[in-house]
Amino acid sequence: MNEQSLDLFDLKRIKINHTKAELEQMGKQRLKDVSSKELATFVPVKRDPVAAISQTEAKMIPELLPLRHQRMTASRFAFFRGTAELMEQDMKQQHQSGIPIVICGDAHVNNFGFYASPERKLLFGLNDFDEARIGNWESDLKRLLVSIELAGSENGFAPDELTKVLELTTKTYRHAIKNANKLSLPEVFYFSFEIHDMINSINQFGDAPSQMEKILQNIIKKSQHSNSEEIVRKMGTINDRGQLVFRDNPPRARHLSPLQYKQVVAGYEHYRDNVRQDIRVFLANFHITDIIRYSVGVGSFGTRCYLLMLTGIDGSHLVLQVKEAMPLRYNLLNLKVQQAIDNGMLAGRRIVTAQRVLQSTSDPFLASTRFGNRSYYVRQFRDMKESIKLERLDLPSYQLYCQTCALCLAMAHAQSPTSPMLRGYLRHQKELDTGLAQWAHQYVQQVDKDFRAFQEYVQKNG
Fold it and tell me: pLDDT by residue (tens digit) across 408-453?
């Protein structure tokens, strides 16, 4: 099945009426049709990176584009993070396994991190789903591998060292798929990677470096203070009417016009109709005290993103992020205009569904909404959310982190009913470890070309 045919997020595409054994056999057949050697063969691409980026940015806020460009030109890895549309289009030119599952679509090494379960446990896993779709599993793994080389190069790791990390990452993914295939469906569904389990289980990759153990312990401590009250304390101020509001910091943080404010409030009311009933009851304790447009990230910087300050009847606070759900970049160049519009209006629902599938447990406040002819999704802002700063990792810790990401990615992929096909395809395919490492090396050269072209464009056009 060619990924180009998967235009929309249709979960019926992964509902296949076959047994686990039959699906595994179908995966073995796919290997005969598209060998692991072909899958690891880089097919050169020809396209205008600046034109593709401009097409994406045409839907963003013009005022924010200079700052977005500044962030993207900071490094090759920053550029890679901000241009998912380039690799997504390039993947269509590569050999594809034709095994459809729910994928992240942007599984680079910085899109993994820690987040809170409803029980307030700290979990590790994927944390960005804006490009999630039904697609081929290798799209996620290849993006992870390319990002590992880019981020590792910035850390000063040698090419041969990074090759080993890439090979171990693919090996870890393969073994995790194998182990997931041995579990029962409930065991896969309830799998989670709680931080203390993570500290214990990473020893399967070898003795955990002391630096990594120290980092994880610090994350546990920091996460306890990452909540709405801390956000209000850092980002809030008292205005001239004595009201607690967000602090302006244009162009990144800016208060809204009366019309925009009214639209966001309407979107919040629509959100409350979509959220879980227990959360809807809980939100009845709160009222909106301020709204600000607040841009985040690299790839999504420039999209419409808002923070809502809610104040409870007891004076406590809750900060929600209302983030624009863009149409799939993967589809924009292929869909007809009306299809793209329809895709965009369903984007919030797509992202929420994918997050709930790919994460072991999700933010209870997560739900979609619409306003101003655009789609959005809502979640808590920075609630116990933490990430590992890659630039601070030594080589053993970096290798361990990358293997951990591969394990989490495999378990996320294992949630799809078609995942036994992955086991059938990957069985005894050790050559993929070196093959995909070489594919990643070659694609990094493509990133270099694109990065230089974009730098030249920014220098000329500002």
Answer: 999 999 999 999 999 999 999 999 999 999 999 999 999 999 999 9
**Distance of alpha carbon 103 from its chain centroid, rounded?**
10
Tell me: cis bond preceding 251? Omega within 30 of 0 counts: yes
Beta bridge partners of 123: 115, 194
Using alpha carbons, select from 6, 83, 39 the residue that is nearest to residue 422: 39
pLDDT in tens, 200-227: 666 565 555 566 777 777 777 777 777 8
CB 358 within 8 A of CB 412: yes
Q: Which of 347, 452, 366, 391 is nearest to 110 (CA)?
A: 391
Backbone angles phi, psi at 164, to 5 degrees: -65, -40
Are 399 and 206 in contact, with CB atoms under 8 Å apart? no
